[in-house]
Amino acid sequence: MSADADCDADGDTDADADSKVDADAIERHLRRGVDEYGLFRWLDLDFEVLEPGRVAMSVPFDEKFVNLTGRTIHGGITAALIDTASGFALRSTFERPEAASLTTTDLNVRYVRPARDDVRAAAEVVRAGRSMGVTEVTVTSTTPDGEERTVATGGTTYRIFRGEGDE
């Protein structure tokens, strides 16, 4: 915030309004990325939660995602969802996500049980540093009896390449 920011009677500054505009711009940028990027369209990704440092995304069950047995979602889909939700969660902390890029340096997945329905990843940023970011993720799916259960947990580490204006 600049030293000359105007304050209203409650002590709120114009920067507070600006941060809302910035949050909206960040959300638009991230949603556009899902709509325009081929893999994300193929997965039919959908945001359920998009907040600074926290993202939940879902992938609907589709026969194209199943293992050879045809009954469970391939683990690679789960891993891709962990990586993707993590990246969006980390990007949601940037002032200008369009001016930065990420490279996954570590992706870990712990499979707990098979996923037989839609899958949902809830990602949270553990640390968003200047050049490295770390996330934790829980992936859930609905069981045949209708219960939401954890199917995998995991996390990522990213190398962050920040652009000008996103310090």
Automatic annotation (TrEMBL):
CDD domains: PaaI_thioesterase. Its EC number is 3.1.2.-. Residues 72-143 form the Thioesterase domain. Keywords: Hydrolase. Pfam families: 4HBT. It comes from the Archaea. Belongs to the thioesterase PaaI family. This is PaaI family thioesterase. It comes from Halomarina halobia.
